[in-house]
Amino acid sequence: MPAAQALGADLGKSVMAIAYGEQWMNMAQPFWALPALAIAGLGVRDIMGYCITALLFSGVIFVIGLTLF
């Protein structure tokens, strides 16, 4: 946020940009799923294909939404 203030950028848009970036990385690197995978006896390889597919589809929807609005 200090960088956004120094550049004179809109703080609301800066906060949303940070949140979008964090959400995108949480879909690419599913650290949130590690406890559930351990309980289920699965590995990260078992769900990475699904995570990447969701990442790509949501990325397309996200870019279209940002472009139109």
Automatic annotation (TrEMBL):
<keyword id="KW-0812">Transmembrane</keyword>
<keyword id="KW-0472">Membrane</keyword>
<dbReference type="GO" id="GO:0005886">
    <property type="term" value="C:plasma membrane"/>
</dbReference>
<feature type="transmembrane region" description="Helical">
    <location>
        <begin position="47"/>
        <end position="68"/>
    </location>
</feature>
<dbReference type="Pfam" id="PF02667">
    <property type="entry name" value="SCFA_trans"/>
</dbReference>
<keyword id="KW-1133">Transmembrane helix</keyword>
<protein>
    <submittedName>
        <fullName>Short-chain fatty acid transporter</fullName>
    </submittedName>
</protein>
<dbReference type="InterPro" id="IPR006160">
    <property type="entry name" value="SCFA_transpt_AtoE"/>
</dbReference>
